[in-house]
Amino acid sequence: MKKDPRQLSIEDYDYDLPAEKIAATPLAIRHESKLLCFQDGIISDHRYFELDSLLPTNSFLVFNETKVIPARLLFEKDTGGTIEIFCLQPDSSYGEMSTALLTNERVLMQCLVGGASKWKSGITLTKEVGPLQLRANIIQKESDHFLIEFNWTPSAYTLAMVLDLTGATPLPPYIKRPVAKTDRQQYQTVYAKKEGSVAAPTAGLHFTEALLEKLQLKNIKYDFVTLHVGAGTFKPVKAETLQEHAMHSEWIDVKRSFLESWRSQLDKPLVAVGTTSLRTLESLYWLGVKLIREEHTSAPVLSQWECYQLEQEGVPLSEALTAIIEWMEKRALEQFVTQTALLVAPGYSCKVIDGLLTNFHQPRSTLLLLIAALVGNDWKKIYQHALQRQYRFLSYGDGSLLWRNDQ
Predict the structure, then answer these.
(1) Where are the strands (E) in 154-305, listed by range?
(2) Mean pLDDT of 324-337
(3) What are phi and psi of 330, to 5 degrees?
(4) Is the pLDDT of residue 268 over 60?
(5) CA distances, 352 to each of 31, 110, 141, 293 (Å)
(6) Which domain holds residue 296?
(7) pTM over 0.85, yes/no
């Protein structure tokens, strides 16, 4: 009988992660990072540059081509103190981040605020860079964020331009060092294209143009989806059971041509590059199931537990993809844009992917739960091996190639 993930205790997904195991900087050559391979219960040690020899020739890899925006803003108060504003996502009236980035003059953003107690109500924070003057005001405080109004002059600047001039790379909170200029390039995949993330899809940080060329020479196909990563990816599970944990919702954006290409390669082993790619691909299956079940005038969204209620549907992947493609064709759409809050945890059976390339994740995190859903209790063996063999952990660390363990 399958586990009900809502009743899982996060205490069962904890391990000791010494601070010295957390990578503060990436390797100078990305593809020289260590790569642990787990298949059929066996662990082996490699380097990312050997990836082509670890994948079947007919594999199909899917990358997340989202691009990290400089979402951290530091404002100096007149009194000399510093207020840090971390932009999470635009107010719901703007839709996805990529739309908000094109706005001029003014925008409302959901933000985290460091030093909020020092920011008195009614005080406007200002920051000047060359001709640009940026102003920030608190509109209201919510349970887990602030709604901040930013406005700026010259008004011809877009929000993307404003952040590029005034913002800093949003390194994760567990990297305990100042942000360096080099992070702007290093905390970004070589194939990053669509701006909108406040955290990098870190599994992709190991890829170089040289490694991608090696994959092509072996005739290993790959394609791209977009999931804009939110800061909620670092949110620890503080509740005793998952039922009480609210999963963050993120925007996904996929081309119709990608869906058609994927549908034509369903006989190939599918490897998701990163947990964000996995969540996108698995979400697309369930969104297709929703379109089969009922008519939707706008793109359906996927809530946190919905897939567990839909699991008895038994819809083949080809039919789910066809449902999305036909829905798009009917509306002459080239992009399928919607939101997913899918929480993959033990008890979830992957419908789509065969393997996952991913980094090593924090204890008691939803990302570690996803790994446990994929490989079962072997996650403990995998992580213990990585700790003993001096693998580097978290965003700038090493990675793993994990094949599904369906036993």
Answers:
(1) 194-197, 221-227, 250-255, 270-273
(2) 97
(3) -60, -30
(4) yes
(5) 27, 33, 40, 19
(6) 5-67+186-403
(7) yes
